[in-house]
Amino acid sequence: MKLARRFRRLAKGAVIAAAVAVVETTGLSVSTQADSKLTPINTNVYTPKNDGSGWLNGKNYAALSPRVIQLEHQANPKDNGKLLMTFEQVITNNQAKTGSPSFPIYESDDSGKSWKKVSSVLPTNHQGNSPRWGFMNCPQLYELPEKIGDMPKGTVVLAGNATPNDFNDPKAATDLEMMRSDDAGQNWTFESSIATAGPSKLLGDPVWEPYLMVYNHQLVCYYSDERDSSGLKPKAQALVHQTTTDGKTWSPIKFDVDPNKISDSRPGMATLAQLSNGKWVLTYEQEGGKNSGAKISDDPTNFNSADAGTTIAPGGAPYVTKLNNGDIAFNNNGNSTSDNKGGYVFVFKDQESLLKGTWHPTKQYSTQTGIGYNRQILPLANGMLLIANGHETNWNPSRIDVETIDVGDTEQTGGNVTVHYVDQNGKSIAPDDVLKGGQIGTSYDVSAKTAKQIDGYTLTGITTGKDDVTGNFGADPIDITVSYRTIQSSGTPTGPIIPNSNTPTNPTNPTTDTPTKPTSTNQAAKPTKVKPFMAYAKRVVYKYDKATFTHSARLSKVAKNTTMKVVATAQSTNGAKRYQLSDGTYVTAKDSFVAPLYLTKKVKQLRVIKTEGVYTYKERTLAKKNRVKHVKRGTTLRVKRLITHRLTTRYQLTNGNYVTGNVQFVK
Predict the structure, then answer these.
(1) What distances in angstroms separate CA 103 from CA 68, 130, 358, 444, 547, one per listed residue?
(2) Which of 249, 316, 592, 655 is 20 to 30 A distant from 643 in Cα terms?
(3) Distance from C-alpha of 269 to C-alpha of 286, rounded to nearest angstrom
């Protein structure tokens, strides 16, 4: 067995090496650093420290319900393939005196072998509340596969329960919130409240256990609903969902499993997957976790709520997922053994075999980390199945572990990387170079092709995708455009010089020609992505739907001092610079009309210019509760350092306090 496995590794390596040799002859290269799917891992991500004061709200665990996603739609291709993890992190009673529980975000860039914490998510819209609020119970991570509202494809969203630290506080309540990250989990902002309810505890009338997915161009949030206001009988719980097309406003609830129509009074913990026949399966707890059930629908937003489903396994906390090869994988916290190892993963070929349940699986696999409550399974791009395990609620010590197992899945191949070659008028002048997509998360490099020399033309630079020349394959295709100018018979280039080029003019064809003025037939260059920043209107301006401003392209007026999020720069047909905003519209980039909202230079002192003055704060989060002192207009502040905070800047003063870097307040 070992010899056969070793032979497969060697054979696979030889095939990859041969493929690279062929690719490199065309000037395109792809990394082969992806982990072999034949090498399982088993690693600890987090083990909490117990200070002896007990866990908040009397819980008998400190970490539970891990959720992992693998990024594949990122605007920065270097983030494709990364794993992000979150979980419920319970704090101690001592820690709760000065802090609140958060959802931690961990990152892995080696398919789960190693992890590092990159951020913590707190319910920012409840900061400053009394009592203190935090995030608790089952979180859910999701990467948007398409644009929803002003959230572009690749935005990472997180749903979970915001609640006061003390579940028994008279003001205790639950706010099922959605947070968003525009930078692969590094920073987070509040997006919307999905639903509100009673205290986040059993029989407290809560909502919890969210599951997110996009279907039919809308974001769907499934969750367990215990609210009497939803029309439920006392102590009952339903499975419901709500949808949104803009990320802000959510539809009324729709029942997926209604306890008023079936004998089961507590269905819960929904997860979904699409079957090979195109239908959708919803798995969920039956009778409060006694069993796990499944029900089928052609439309995942239209399950028969009066259908009690088919029991497919003993025990609750089910999780179902579709493998890369189309098979269905399933696990739950049933199937335990006398040594409490259990924790099998079951694979089913199709709908018929799935509905026969775990008593008759197509295949069955044992695990190293064993049985676990709310354990997640995730197919990785390298063909391995990742298991994220928080173990049981009374596990001592609490810990979050991950392992991978080989269930016979296939690798997931990403989109192609295509390099286009155009002249100063946007006309193609050479065949595209196409690097066929490799395994998602493996690296590519097409820098050699972006320096290509073409007879009769001189290279002016990369006009689209200059930040995508190197990166990791994702699920989406990547397009890079390289521009050139025609060389006249005298040997000098003609046509306008493409601005913002990061490649110098060919030194073998120097020119001192003044570029010709673009004609009305020239097309505006495609927008070039920039690191997002906030800007403001210094006077009244207008939004347009194109980079070339015409009266017919005008959309709306922007009032003076209005703030805007800039995501790209563009040019009109006559070369005028524009800003592209997060909503896809364009405004002028003239500094006298629109300018960055925050200072970005390191300075030794600032002067307050706001008529009403400004506050200093004890923390970089400029919340009302953190205010230290009001400073009058004209006051000079001594600066220690510049700090970037999400899309803003702060300055830490020499006394340790903080002040905004907003140009409307200080200079």
Answers:
(1) 13, 20, 32, 33, 40
(2) 592
(3) 9
Query: 285 with 292: CB under 8 angstroms?
Result: yes
Q: What is the pLDDT of residues 213-249, one digit of tens each?
A: 999 999 999 999 999 888 998 889 999 999 999 999 9
Collapsing DSSP to helix, strand or coil, 618 comes out as coil
pLDDT grade for 299, boundaries at 50, 70 and 90:
very high
Domain's final residue, options 596, 626, 649: 596
Backbone angles phi, psi at 335, to 5 degrees: 60, 35
Longest dimension (CA), the chain: 88
Nearest Cα neighbor of 543 from 533, 532, 554 is 554
Q: Are 450 and 503 in contact (CB under 8 A)?
A: yes
* Nearest alpha-carbon partner for 31 in 287, 301, 382: 382
Report which of 615, 599, 608, 604 is spatially closest to residue 648, judged by C-alpha positions: 599
Is 224 a domain residue?
A: no
Evaluated on CA atoms 631, 633, 638, 642, the torsion sign reads: positive
pLDDT band for position 512 (cuts 50, 70, 90): very low
Verify that 372 and 294 share a domain, yes or no: yes
pLDDT digits 0-9 by tens, 534-557: 999 998 889 888 899 887 788 888
User: Last residue of some domain: 363, 385, 412?
Assistant: 412
Confidence of residue 611 (pLDDT cuts 50, 70, 90): confident
Query: Using CA atoms, how far apart are residues 1 and 9, in angstroms rounded to an integer?
Result: 13
Which residues lie across from 494 on neighbouring strands? 486
Same domain for 356 and 470, yes or no, is no
∠ CA 102-104-108, rounded to 5°: 175
Q: How far is Cα 374 from Cα 287, in angstroms, rounded to an integer?
A: 16
Write out pLDDT tens, residues 200-215: 888 788 999 999 999 9
Residue 609 lies in domain: 605-660
pLDDT surpassing 80 at residue 51: yes
Q: Can you list the positions of beta strands (E) in 538-599?
A: 541-544, 554-558, 563-571, 577-581, 586-588, 594-596
Residues 626, 590, single domain; the answer is no
